[in-house]
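User: Predict the structure for this protein chain, please.
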Amino acid sequence: ISGVKVYLLNASGVKIDSTLTDGSGKYLFDSLLSGGYRVQFVAPAGTIASKSNTGSDLSDSDASKTGLSQLVTIDTTKPASDTLRNNLNVDAGFVPVGSIGDYVFADNNGDGIQNTGDSPLSGIKVYLLDATTGAKLDSTLTDGAGKYLFDSLLTGDYKVKFVVPLGSEPTLKTAGG
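Assistant: Here is the predicted structure, written as structure tokens:
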């Protein structure tokens, strides 16, 4: 992925350099002194870090969920071909994600469509369900503007369940656009 922001951090976690990946997804921090370093990758919009350290160090992702690599030790006394001197295997993989969300409202005229005069409902419990098994995957409450959001969702089929407030009933389904 080109244009990914990459930071070089010292062993204490202080940012000491940064760069962007090139058109081939490559980056390089060169002329490093002996010591410990971490690399931090900033996930591109619409992605999350893939699972880390699940295969060979030559082909797996080294970035944690927060985009941070493990501590990498550089030892300039080693031969140039040694990965302890020149480690070109600190990689990051990213997975595209999506989101589900919108608005919960009091349908004051009962027509099933968001109209002037309808009002947002805050504090409504909303569940994200696995569409196949019905298992609850996540939950949230609508905010003061009646909004809710489930983000960082992997490819899959989902359902959304709204807890209907006491003394209310759901409005007409699919009445509007």
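The chain has no helices and 13 strands.
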